[in-house]
Amino acid sequence: MTRRIIHVDMDAFYAAVEVLHNPTLAGKPLIIGALPHERGVVATCSYEARKFGVRSAMNIKDAYRLCPHGIYMHPNFDKYVAATGQIQKIWDDYTDVVEHISLDEGYLDVTHSGQLFGGATAIGKDIKRRIAEEVGLSCSVGVGYSMMSAKLASEEGKPGGIFEILDADALTKLIIDRNVRAIYGVGAKSAATLAENGVQTVRDIISNADKVRKLLGKYGYDIVNLANGVDVRRVATVPKSKSLGKEHTFQKDITDFEHLRDALRLMAKRLSYKIRMAGLSAKTVTLKVTYANMVQITRSKSGKDVHVSATREIYETAAALLDKIDRRPIRLIGISLGGLTTEPVEQLNLFEESAGDHRSPLLEQLLLELQYKYGLDKISSGAEVLARKNLRSDVAEEDGFNKRI
C-alpha cells in the first residue's frame, strides 16, 4: 500500500493568533519575540513584516533596523497552546498516527484511514477548511508519500495553500536544481562542507553520490537516499527527537549564581513536564552557558542507574554542573536533555524537593493530569514559587519568566 503522509504547517502562527484576538492588528507588520530594547530574537512575524526582510530567529535589533515601525510583542503561549489544542483535535478526527512537531506543525499518517474520508488530498482540504472555520486560522498543507515529501509540499503551498508530491519522481523533479539545504537534515555546516567540494545542488548530490557518502559518512548515505526521494522515516506518535532543551537570555549579564539556579529550577520543571507527558526519561543532562563576551560552553552528565525524569533530578544535575564553571558574567543559560528513552524511571516524591519518600505511579499520573488541566504553574513547590518571584525583575511585567523559557 502506498504511504500517504500529510504535513500541516500553520501560517505565521503566533502572529495570526494575536490578530485573531485583536483584529486591529490585521494587515500590520507584527513581530513576536523580544522587544526592540531587549536581548533576544524574533519568534515569528506576520507576512506584512516579512516584506521588510524580517524573519524567524533574526536578532531583534536587526529586525528593528529593518522594520522600526512594526508592532513588537512578547509571545503569549497561553493563547497559542489553546489554539493548538483546537487544531490537534481536528487532526485526531482523521487518524491516530499523528506526530506533533511543535505548536504549529505536525505530520499525519493517513495511509490506512484515507479511504474513509475520500483520500489524503480530501483530508488535507477538509483540515484546511475546518481550521479556518472552527479556529479562525490559516494553514498550509502538504500531501506526500513520505515525511520529507509532505514537508516540502506544505512549503510549496505556503501561505494558505495545499500541494501534493505523490512519488519520488515528482519530488526529485521539483528540487533537482535547488540548493542542498532543500534536503531534510542538511544544515549550514554540512552544506558548507559539500559546497567546498563542489556539491551545491540536489543534482550535484545525485551525480556525486560516492563523494557525498565519503564526505559525510553514514549521514551521507541518508542524504543521497533523500535526494533520490527515498525516505523510510515513520510518523511517530511520541517525540522522536533524542534531545529537548530550554534556554533563557537575560536582559542584563548575571553574576549572581543563585539567580542562575532559580532560572535552572524553572527550566527543569518545564522540561520534566514535557518528557513525562510523553512517557520519556533522559540519560544525559547538558548545561549550556553563554558568557557576556559571547563565549559559549556546555557541560554534560549522563545518568547510570536511574534515568532523569523528575524536576529535582534535572535541576540538581544542572546546578552541580553550574558549580563547576568559571564565575564570570553570564548572558544566557540553558538545559538540554539527551538520550530520551521510554525505559521505566524511578518514581520520586510529590514536589521533588527531597530524595526521601517515593510517590506511586498513580499519584505521578494524577499530578500530570492536574498540571495539564489547570496549568503547569498551578502546582508548584515552595522553591519554585520563590524562584519565579526572584526572576520577575528580568522580564516585562505582563510576561512571566516561565513563558519566556
Give a brief rundown of this model.
The chain has helices at 13-21, 47-50, 60-66, 77-92, 120-135, 147-157, 168-175, 188-196, 202-207, 209-216, 218-227, 257-277, 311-322, 361-374, 382-391, 401-404, and strands at residues 5-10, 30-33, 42-45, 71-73, 98-102, 105-109, 139-144, 162-165, 243-254, 284-291, 296-302, 330-338.
Describe this structure in words.
- The protein has 405 residues and is α+β, with helices and mostly antiparallel strands.
- Helix content is 41%, strand content 18%.
- It has 16 helices and 12 strands.
- The protein has helices at residues 13-21, 47-50, 60-66, 77-92, 120-135, 147-157, 168-175, 188-196, 202-207, 209-216, 218-227, 257-277, 311-322, 361-374, 382-391, 401-404; strands at 5-10, 30-33, 42-45, 71-73, 98-102, 105-109, 139-144, 162-165, 243-254, 284-291, 296-302, 330-338.
- The strands form 3 sheets. The protein has a 5-stranded mixed β-sheet. A 4-stranded antiparallel β-sheet has the order 9-12-10-11, with helices on one face. The chain has a 3-stranded mixed β-sheet with strand order 3-2-4.
- Strand 2 (30-33) and strand 3 form a beta hairpin.
- Helix 4 packs antiparallel against helix 5, helix 10 (209-216) runs antiparallel to helix 11 and helix 12 packs across helix 15 (382-391).
- It is globular.
- The chain starts with a strand and ends with a helix.
- Residues 344-363 and 395-405 have low confidence and may be disordered.
